[in-house]
Specification:
Layout lengths: L1 E2 L2 E13 L5 E14 L8 H16 L3 E5 L9 H10 L3 E5 L5 E4 L1
């Protein structure tokens, strides 16, 4: 998803796991992996606009939508502020990843 203000990467992700009976299974979900807002448009609501468009696109791919909160340049936005922003858009924290990122699900 891309517009004049920035972009978001949205794609289908598959996750393999072992179910309760010990059998291998998989589940899929739409992943919003990265959102970028051009510097001149930051702090003006365009990030939310891009995210909402990405969520709409993601829901067309799969009912389950996840996003990864990456800690970008700390001068732009810190991980805690980013997580709060995603929460305000309907996501909930699913897992804190070893690399410092946060996986969230809608």
């Amino acid at each position: 998803m891309k517009n004049e203000y920035g972009f978001a990467d949205v794609y289908l992700e598959e996750e393999d796991f072992i179910d309760e009976s010990g059998e291998m299974d998989s589940k899929s979900y739409a992943l919003i992996d990265y959102i970028e807002v051009s510097e001149e448009y930051r702090k003006q609501g365009y990030g939310r606009e891009i995210l909402m468009a990405a969520i709409k696109e993601a829901k067309e791919i799969n009912d389950t939508v996840k996003i990864i909160a990456h800690e970008y340049d700390s001068d732009v936005i810190g991980i805690d502020e980013l997580v709060r922003f995603y929460e305000s858009c309907g996501f909930k924290v699913e897992d804190a990843l070893e690399n410092g990122n946060v996986l969230m699900e809608m």
